[in-house]
Every structure is written in structure tokens, then in C-alpha cells.
Amino acid sequence: MSAPVLSVSVESPLQQAVQLMSEHHISGLPVVDGSGALVGELTEQDLMVRESGFDAGPYVLLLDAVIYLRNPLNWDKEVHQVLGSTVGEVMRTKVHTCSADLPLPAAARQLHEGGTQRLFVLDDARRPIGVLTRGDVVRALASAG
Hints:
By secondary structure, this protein is α/β, with parallel strands linked by helices. 43% of the residues lie in helices and 19% in strands. The chain has one domain: Roll (CBS-domain), CATH 3.10.580. The strands form two sheets. A three-stranded mixed β-sheet has the order 1-2-3. A three-stranded mixed β-sheet has the order 4-5-6.
């Protein structure tokens, strides 16, 4: 895993998070609350959706309801997330995590089955202490062989 972990708070300005991701060449950041506990994740994908400038018209609403099977009643909330200016307004709350003692094969399986690029490694207080990426797994396999 990579450590220490760069993180942002829920209240952080979105532009600050974008700058941090750009400067450190990372594609996702853990979002923490006041005690440092993980509450979400901000990814390049979240930023791409926000910046895509989609038109929230009836056609998109129809596609959103049919293709993605989202609840149209949540549309206002989703539009607000896309247009948000703080990390908390844009972040996703479904985050893939693991503990530091998870064996590498189990972590690799969790990355693959979860369809995610990263696992945030948490301590007992749910504070991020590291990040394990698919690239980390590949490097570990290469050095073992």
C-alpha cells in the first residue's frame, strides 16, 4: 500500500481537492470527517461527471431512470451533487476499504470483485492509513516472482 494517505474533509473546497489530485498524480482521495474517519471518496470519475456539463433535461432524466435504474425522485439530489462546490457535495459514500492485515490475494480479489481501482486501508477508528491500488498489487506480484 501507499502511505501516508492524502485526504480531504467534507467541507474542503472542491478546487482544493482537484489541485491536490493533480499535483500528486492520484485518481482518488479519501474524504474524512472532523475526527479523521473515512466518510467518502472523491474520484476522477466524480469530477468528470461534474465537469461534463450535461443538460439535466427530460431526455437525460429518462436515460437516468431507465438505463441506470436510479430513482427519479433522487434527481434533484444528484443534480446538486454534480453542481456542488465542496467535496461533500460531490463525493461518493460507497467506499471500498480493508484492514492492514488483509492478505494480498484477498485484497486483489476484493479489488477485482468490487470493480474498483483502490482500497482505502483503515485503522480500528476507520481512519485511512494507506491506499492499495491495482498497480500496487501488480508491483507486489512482480517483485515476488
